[in-house]
Amino acid sequence: MMFEPSASKSYAQRIEAVLSYIEANLDGDLSVETLSRIAAFSRFHFHRQFTAFVGVPVARYVQFIRLRQAARTLAAQRKRSVLHVALDSGFESPEAFARAFGRAFGMSPTAFRRKPNWAIWGASFIPPHFSRSINMNIKIVTFTPVTAAALEHHGSPGMLNQTIQRFIEWRKASLESPVATTRTFGIPRSNPDTTSNDDWRFDICGEIHGHVAPNSHGVREITIPGGRCAVLRHLGSTDHINETIYPFYRDWLPQSGESLAEHPLFFHYLSAYPETPLNQWQTDIYFPLL
Question: Tens digit of pLDDT for each residue in 181-193?
C-alpha cells in the first residue's frame, strides 16, 4: 500500500477519526482491531502511528478519556452512583474503575466527588518525553540480507542485559560471530511502551558467515531481510532510543510518501561498551520500507 504526497494530512485525518470514535464510544468496542480498521491501518502499523501522533499508546489514551468522562460525571451528577459512572465510562466493574482512578488521580472516585481536584486531573495525562520533535537526517538505502545468530530475550526490558551477557558468552565460546569482525544487531519484536513485561521480546543478533552449530545457549540462526530501508542514527545511550524512533513515525514518515514493510525495525550497533562511553554511542535504526 502506497500513500500520496499528502500522506501527512491523510495520516492526521485517520488518527482524528479514531479519536472521535473513541470519544463517542467509550462504553463500546475500543479494541485495537476495531480502531485500526477505522484508521485503515494494519494493527502492526496502527500501534506505531497512534503513539507517534498522540504521544501515548492507544490503551493508555482510551483509559484516560474514560477517566476524564468519569471525573466530569462524578462532579456534575452527584446523585449518580459510582457503579453507574464506572459502567457508563466503559469499566467492567467499580473495583477496576476505582483502581484505575486511584492510580491516575491519587484519590478514590468518592473522594474526588466530594472535593474535585482539577489540578490533579489536568496533570495526570502528560505525553512522554519522546513526543518532542527532533532534527532528522534520514537516508534511504538498500540493505543487503544478513545471516545472523540470534538469542531471544523474552520478559522485562530491565532484564535485557542478562540475556546480552549470555549472547556474549556464546560468541566468545563458539567463535562463530567474532565481535571484532562482524556486525551486531538488535531486533525489537514488540514495543515496550505497548507490551507487558511478560510478553516483551527482543532478538540480540551477531552477523555470521557460516551456520549456527547446536548449542545450549538457545542461540538460533535467522536472516535479517534485505530491501529498501530508511536509516536514522541515534546518538547516546539506547535507553533513550525511543526519543529518536517516535518522531520518525510522527513527523518524517507521513510526509515522505513511503510505506513501511511488515518486518520490524532493527538496530545496528556501531559502538561497543565499555570501549565507548554510553553517552557517545552511535546506533543506526533501520526502518524497512516497501
Answer: 999 999 999 877 6
Residues 6 or more apart from 272 whose CB is under 8 A from it?
A: 179
Burial 231-270 (b: 16+ CB within 10 A, else e): ebebebebeebbbbbbbbbbbbbbebebebbebbbbbbbe
What global pTM score does this model have?
Answer: 0.62
Are residues 114 and 153 located together in one domain of the fold?
no
* CATH number of the domain encompassing residue 74: 1.10.10.60
- Which range of residues forms the domain containing residue 249? 139-288
- Quote the CA–CA distance of 142 and 219 in Å, as a whole number: 27
Contacts from 57-61 at CB under 8 Å and sequence distance 24+?
A: 57/191, 57/193, 57/194, 58/18, 58/32, 58/194, 59/194, 61/22
How far apart are the C-alpha atoms of 51 and 48, rounded to whole Å? 5
120: burial class by Cβ within 10 Å (0-12, 13-18, 19+)? middle
**How far is 130 from 277, CA to CA, in rounded Å?**
23
